Amino acid sequence: MHDLASRLITDDVNGVRRDEILARHSSWGIGGAADIFAEPTTPDQISLCVRRAAEHGVPLLVIGHGTNILFPDEGVRGLVVKIGSGFGDAFVRGTTVVASAGIWVPGLARLAVRRGLSGIEHTIGIPGTLGGLVVMNGGSRRQGIGSAVRRVVVIERSGDLKTLDQAECEFAYRSSVLQRTGAIVCSVEFELTPLPVAEIRSLCLEILRDRRHKFPRKERSCGSVFLSTPSIYADHGPPGRIIENAGLKGFRIGGAEVSVHHANFVLNKGGASAKDVLLVIRHIRDVVEDRFGVALQCEVKKVLENGSIVPAHTVVS
User: Fold this and answer.
1) Active site residues
2) Is the pTM of this model over 0.90?
3) Fewest beta carbons less than 10 Å away: which of 85, 122, 123, 207?
């Protein structure tokens, strides 16, 4: 493992260090140490990380801002690559916006608003970086960012650079082919629609007011824990309402608590462990299925100690 770290340092990969505490890179503030950590600033550096990890037989985990994942208390036995502010560029050409994977999503949405371009304003209040949002086809108001994507530049797990058009990304509700292939997003090209700035700004302000009213923004969380699938939403409403109707607001194990403000948020109230969060998730799923016959699935992903990523409910059932 130390041989890999030394090789990456020799390769001039940015930000290589050993035993990095992952809680520092998690919106939940939870997670043990990664054996090796790197913050590459170019596609070539990402490719080197991919190739060197394969050469050394070391697991590779790629993260963004850590807003939709739960790191293990035991840490990660492998290389964790963070696509962060070093990939934070964006430029506008007519109705086309090209942005790097590490750009802060609300900042990108505001850039589009200033240029009078519509199509991604629904992301204005989503905390996180672009790469992860595209991988999960995230969005708000039951929209997905994939609808505005023209093409995505990725690095495959072979280390090769590849460009995918929108159809090849196979965007669906909160999913894409990138989740299955593990390809790493480098940049995204959007085709947006011209609209008056005042009109787009008005919609953004409405979205932000709605989020401020609904969500516990100032406490440590991952955002929404459970997926609002179209079928569950049609039959029972959003997960937060279902969990609230089950009487679970304020339910707590250790430092992890179901938010009293919005029941689809699990908060780190101080000193929460990954185990605490998983136990709360399991309890919510058990109670909701028992009372309403609804099998909630997690939107949040759980990182395993070997660097694999799985939906959190698959490790707590």
Assistant:
1) 174, 224, 299
2) yes
3) 85
